[in-house]
Write a structure and sequence with these properties.
Elements (H helix, E strand, L loop, with lengths): L11 H4 L3 E13 L2 E12 L2 E6 L5 E5 L3 E5 L23 E6 L3 H4 L1 E10 L2 E12 L2 E10 L14 E3 L5 E4 L19 E4 L21 E3 L5 E6 L6 E5 L6 E5 L36 E3 L5 E6 L12 E5 L4 E5 L1 E2 L2 E2 L6 E4 L4 E6 L5 E5 L4 E7 L2
Antiparallel strand pairs: 1-2, 2-26, 3-4, 4-5, 6-7, 7-8, 8-9, 10-11, 11-12, 12-13, 14-15, 15-16, 16-17, 18-19, 19-20, 20-23, 21-22, 24-25, 25-26
Amino acid sequence: MLKPTIQSVISFAAIAAPTVAFADVERQIDARSGPVMVERLADRLNHPWGMAFLPDGRLLVTERAGRLHILSSEGELSEPLEGVPDVASSGQGGLLDVAVGPDFVSTGWIYLSYSAKGEDGSATAVGRGRLDGDTLVGFKTLFHQQPFVDSNKHFGGRIAFSPDGHLFLTTGERGLFDPAQDLSNHFGTVIRIAPDGSVPEDNPFVGKGDARPEIWSYGHRNIQGAAFHPETNELWIVEMGPRGGDELNRVERAGNYGWPLVSWGTHYNGADIPDPPTRPEFIDAYKQWTPVIAPSGMIFYTGDMFPQWRGSALIGGLRAEAIVRVPFSDGSVTKDAEEERIHLDARVRDVEQAPDGSIYVLTDEGNGRILRLSRQ
């Protein structure tokens, strides 16, 4: 997926050109299914956030500080591409996700999510431009949250294209709590639009009073991972809870997931939040984590390099400092199956499957790295 860039004043270390060390083996990890080799492909990235493979095997990578790069199949990292949008780079905001359009071969469309600037603050946004060499041409914003607010928290920002070609964008409730239950804004929602930004007529809240027509589901806190299941074509998301209660959810049309009225976590000040079963009108999580893993980035693994992982959800863990593998069967979380943590000792911001079945990882650091996990 393609992720947006952020223009900001950054340190000399971040400005320095990232270095590449293709096949630079950092270490070996002993996973349940056998040894996993960890290679460092690039480093000195300024908090990389999202990545997506182009059809020719090159990798698009965003930095939260506002830059977009291409990693070649030979392991060379480009200079920042021109034509990315101007973004609000404050707190958790900046250039976020990147996605390659389903029709990229014929159109060249690349999609970016980012925190957009406005007179009243910032808003989660998504837009697209055509990739032409080392430039994004004609970038245009397709959607942004309404309203803009003075907050630098909980932007969400993952992009996922459905098998039928719709664009889904995850958002956060910007740290504002109650608006996540108010359909007159876009806070704490999953957004569904056409690739050109238009609103599909079959969205659930089209023509429903003052509800925002782009909304597909609501009552979310801060969604930073999203992927469609390869067999059922259903959208699954991971979202950050407060103090405890990170969630893995299957997204339902018009579904209300209860935040902030219910949660498996508690408020940061220790105040209790009712558990989801106390309010059966809300959709409960399929899995929750307390203590938190701080999930960010998610795929369903379909490759051959790690056959024991096939069908599992691979979720990036910022707090867990690992890839969290959740087994799936029959299109849902495998009951009573024990999750696995592939520890990387670094905050994992995003996870992606390469064409050869290896796993690429972004680490969320000032000296952020692109790692490749493979078998010997």
